Amino acid sequence: MSLRRPLWAAAALALAAALCTSPAQAAETFPFRDPSLPLNQRIGDLLGRLTLDEKVSLLHQYQPAIDRLGIRMFKTGTEALHGVAWSTDYDANGAVVTASGTVFPQAVGLASTWDPDLIKRVGSAVGDEARGYNAENPTVWGLNLWAPVVNLLRDPRWGRNEEGYSEDPTLTGAISTAYGSGIQGDDPDHLKAAPTLKHYLANNNEIRRDTTSSNLPPRVKHEYDEAAFKPAISADAATGVMAAYNLVNGRPSTVNPDLNDVVRTWTSRDLLNVSDAGGPNNLTGSEQYHTTQAEADAATLKAGLDSFTVDDNRGGPTVTAVKAALSQGLLQESDVDTAVRHILSIRFRLGEFDPDGGPYAAITKDVVNSPANRKLARETAAKAAVLLKNSGNTLPLAPGKKVAVIGPLSDVLYTDWYSGRLPYKVTPLAGIKERAASVTSSEGVDRIALKDVATGRYITAGTGDAGADLKAGVTTAGDTEKFDVFDWGQGVVTLRSVANGRYVSRANWSTLVNNQEQPTGWFVQEQFKLEKQGDGSYLIRYAGYETAYDWFGPNTYVKAAADGTLSLTTAAEASRFAKEVVGSGVDDAVAKAKDADVAVVVVGSMPFINGREDHDRTDMNLAEGQEALVKAVRQANPNTVVVLENSYPTTITWEQANVPAILWTTHAGAETGNALADVLYGDVNPAGRLTQTWYRSAADLPDILDYDIVQRDRTYLYFKGDPLYPFGHGLSYTAFRYQGLRVTPKGDGYEIGVKVTNTGSRAGDEVVQLYTHQRQSRVKQPVKQLRAFQRVSLAPGGSTTVTFTLPKADLALWDATRNRFAVETATHDVMVGPSSGDIRQRTTVDVRGEKIPDRDLSTTTRAIDFDGYSGVDLVDETKARGDAVAGSRGDWIVFEDVDLKRKPVRVTAGVASIGGGSFELRLGSPTGRLVATVPVAATGDVRTWGTATASLSGASGVKDLYLVFTGDLRIKDLALTR
């Protein structure tokens, strides 16, 4: 979900109060309140008692109370990616209402455990805490949770990488199923809370995210993107999906018919599908897909969305639009009934209409941040940590060592956009202090003072938590004139005031104030750049994210007025400042490192700055200043350990080559410091594994908007280069031996077993990963593909036989020639090991399936079911459903192995073109033998379809058939006939 600055908050609060008034209990006991009746009967009874107006009112995110039936207000949307985070409600100051409960590791960290049993326990704790908050205030804390995010981490530059699980659909499916199952609870008829999968479909870029289209050829769509969503829905571990902002093949996800046609076929349960914030309004706004909101809302309902997340808590516009759609015949009352039935189904399963509130109604606020949940958070954070490198047994650390804990993240914990507040904080420094014999510390950041060159006056900050407006005030530099500079890369820094430990911000949208605990908010107004000029002075540039919206134009530079007041102006009018380094962070860190037995350098990201919702990363490097710090410390003390704390792959090529030990963790919540210490000192033997490929450079990646992982060799599935760290990588303090891999046919599949032995002197966990590779195929196959995994614990010298069941159906590929999955007859490599790059045992199995027949184009074939392409776009056939291919001169698609033995003589195609054009059919290559030129008459609109025909000559045998565009047009289908 997206949330923008709550300018509406005051009005929203007043309306929320009206909506949330507790309804009077109806005097009559209706059948829908009888839990002994079948669920469908109860839903039908309630649905039949609602008026049309009442039913329409339930379509909005804020479903108002219906007093006459004793039904209270219900709201969708409590964020809970790694703990209960926030609700779509606002306090009196316009701030989002945020939870202060257990914060678990970010989602990518949860998946890094490769431990579904553990993640189910985490999900259960989150479900408990959601219930606890709901028990305290059900009008703010709804039980429809918007989590987990199952979008695949196809591109590590995605701003929301921290929210997802993996680049692999099998791992993503397992972790999302576990998390969702835990949230829901184990009662077969009731839900503890209702998890909603985000964001359907192929949502993995923030740049122009509501107007860009993800081009998904059928294989990519079915084998990859859908495969991430299907497991949790099929296992009844989720209660619906949230539609994404982006378009898929030219159609906004808000009106993707697959929400009904595909997603609902994965389960027999009713699903409550919701829009992302503002999604339905984008249809008439940024996307310009529908002319009126009535048309847009009708299309949204018909596509399979049930709940409109728009206009905050003001349901009026949605009600008006839906009623208009009904009056215009765009919707029938039965369409509304269908959506309301889906909504009520989830509300019933949550126990709302049971007299006792259902089996989870007894959960109270006492569960929030309970000792058990804090213990679970620590366990999870430790199990999520990934040991990337450990040469010379640098780790674990011996307890008696003197340790220098260094770095900008050494004594701080940060939260992210989808995190709750931390009720307490154990920083890395605090955790290590509990273990080490002696500890020194340094943040390794420069302390500076900024002096207006023209006046000699220093920028002065306020004291106390509220700080004060910064101004150029005095001519000597005390603590109120000093700032610690944190480097986050690409020139962006934050300035922490020494006067009060708060960050400088434009939080009041006017002057600069030192009042923020951490960089935060939608626009992140704590970002600055210190731009050195030719004369050695500096310009101070405000670099908050709202500058991306060009709200301030060129007025982003700081100017000091005659009275010292600071304001923003152009670079030409800005004041020039001297940057006086009061204390060198590198010098301090080096001194501490030289005086220690070991240096632990904690570097990484600030989650509100280094990529986040609405902002993709443009590189994958560690911040320049942080890398310089690591290099200096490593030179000062060869016994250096780097702890990298961030939310995504990072190109730490120098560190991998030169630093003895590297440990990665995501931002892992209040217990981060304890968990890191547990791992660094060996109380926990690390067994976390990477869920993404870590590339050596962003140059290894294609454009972030290119979604065809097959053609572009994306992710570990198809990448043929040499990664920095492969998918599944992670080291241990012990060693494991793999023996005796066997594959045995069993039922309609295979049983695969391998013996794993801990050959080291420490107990530890091993993540045993099963991969396959299909050697022969009609289509391009993955280099290797994860099929299953198990995290097992073994004592020193202990052994276990890890057994996997691999259904033959899991080896199926999407056959675009017949629009279905098919298992080909082929030899498959079967491989096991601790990572995709460390295969310890392999064998083969001959799979008996089928041979995909040669293409038959004698019947009408969709153009999108091609085998290859160049240059084309995938587009919508109509606004309601269907896919087509759009191209311009020189673009082409190819159908391989086409059966032309009957020597067709005519081609017929479904075409659309505003101005007309043509296409050619050629054999063997885009410039091969010409067998047809097909003129296309203008149809006047890209979604107005006509028929184009032409004679075909010289086509025979079995050939690759290229359709080459020679004009701007769209093609939806074609047939070759006698």
UniProtKB/TrEMBL annotation:
**Entry keyword Transmembrane helix:** no
Q: Does the keyword Signal apply?
A: yes
Tell me which residues make up the CBM6 domain: 859-977
The record's Pfam families line, in alphabetical order, gives: CBM_6, Fn3-like, Glyco_hydro_3, Glyco_hydro_3_C
What GO terms are given for molecular function? hydrolase activity
Where does the UniProt annotation place the signal sequence?
A: 1-26
**Sorted alphabetically, which keywords does the UniProt record give?**
Hydrolase, Signal
Q: Which domain of life is it from?
A: Bacteria
For this entry, the protein name equals Glycoside hydrolase family 3 C-terminal domain-containing protein
In terms of Gene3D superfamilies, this protein maps to: 2.60.120.380, Galactose-binding domain-like, Glycoside hydrolase family 3 C-terminal domain, Glycoside hydrolase, family 3, N-terminal domain, Immunoglobulins
Please give the family membership noted in the entry: Belongs to the glycosyl hydrolase 3 family.
